[in-house]
């Protein structure tokens, strides 16, 4: 029934800063939403032909709901870290997770937690399996 994730929607008080942040990661505007007064009120940013981030302008941050995080698959997580640091974005050091995937993390201008994953031939995301993590809900 479901073929892929269509989009993640981010509500933001600053469309420009949010578009610029994702733009530096190579995610560019595909189309935009304007109201009857011709004000820019949102947009779709294209990751590829089928995966998008939808940005919607709001005036005040909301407290309802929660987007814990989302992850991007990348070719070279070290290169992503270097690019973010060149632009004064705080990003973690890359590390190899218990899932055998290289990972680094940061936050976007709206405080949304983002993971960057670089899969290896042993990544559980590709081959399945089980791993043990130190987590208790």
Distance between the amino and carboxyl termini: 30 Å
- Looking at the structure, what is the overall shape? elongated
Write down the CATH class of the largest domain.
Alpha Beta
CATH T-level topology of the largest domain: 2,3-Dihydroxybiphenyl 1,2-Dioxygenase, domain 1
Q: Spell the H/E element sequence.
A: EHEEEEHEEEH
CATH homologous superfamily placement of the largest domain: 2,3-Dihydroxybiphenyl 1,2-Dioxygenase, domain 1
Structural class: alpha/beta
- CATH architecture identity of the largest domain: Roll
Mean pLDDT: 89
Largest sheet: 4 strands, mixed
Bin the helical content.
Answer: 10-25%
Question: How many beta-strand runs?
Answer: 8
Tally of helical runs? 3
Rg (CA only): 17 Å
What is the topology, as strand order, of the major beta sheet? Answer: 1-4-3-2
State the low-pLDDT regions, or none.
none
Number of domains: 2
Strand content: 25-35%
Protein model, in words:
This protein has 137 residues and is of the alpha/beta class. It folds into 2 domains: 1-60, 2,3-Dihydroxybiphenyl 1,2-Dioxygenase, domain 1 (Roll); 68-130, 2,3-Dihydroxybiphenyl 1,2-Dioxygenase, domain 1, CATH 3.10.180. 17% of the residues lie in helices and 33% in strands. It contains 3 helices and 8 strands; from the N terminus they run βαββββαβββα. It has helices at residues 15-23, 77-86, 124-127, and strands spanning 7-12, 28-34, 40-46, 52-57, 69-73, 95-96, 102-107, 113-118. The strands form 2 sheets. Strands 1-4-3-2 form a 4-stranded mixed sheet, with helices on one face. A hairpin with a 5-residue loop joins strand 3 (40-46) and strand 4. The protein is elongated. The model has no long low-confidence stretch (mean pLDDT 89).
